Amino acid sequence: MVKKSHKSVKKGKLTVMAGPMFAGKTTKLLTLFSVLSNLGYNILCFKAEAKKINGMGHTNSHDARPLPVIYVGMDQPEKILQYVGEDGIDKVIIDAIHFFPKNRILSVVKKLLNCGIDVYVNGLIYDYRKQLFGATRALLLMADEPFELFSVCVRCAGKADHTERIAGGIDQRIGTTGPQKATYIPVCSRCHKIYQG
Ligand SMILES: [Zn+2]
User: Fold this and answer.
1) Which residues neighbour ligand 1 (ion) by CB within 5 Å?
2) Is the overall model pTM greater than 0.85, yes or no?
3) What is the DSSP letter of 82?
């Protein structure tokens, strides 16, 4: 990276929005992007993508406002450092951070913070099997500004902190976009059933 980590660099701030699907995580990122862009900050937005190609695109929250993003392969989180290394970037947004391998994305985030870059991420805490998903929980615990978001359970209308898969195969890392798609619903822990394929 161009920005060198030395003592005079103030560490960046980590903001984490975590929770199940349909809790408004991407909408919050879109709002952040809009506000920070208007304030004149240089921001890069990234999103983990299952397909191997990298490139530009847009992501949509469930209310369909687009966010310009650079797609990064799930197994290539270090690509984020290459893009940011072109310098002049104040803030980095990472959408769907759970898809990246835990230790490698933690290392990427720490490097960005040590370069004085503010990092905003969102992610699922749990996968559809109710297991911790990627680095989301670890990042939530180390965040300067942690936000745990919830949805509404579609079965009992209670507070939903889990995401249940109801179609789309049993591979853990399948989102709602990309070549392979799965279907999900927000549910509470008591109503959650583990999809068996
Ligand atoms: Zn419920």
Assistant:
1) 153, 155-156, 158, 188, 191
2) yes
3) H
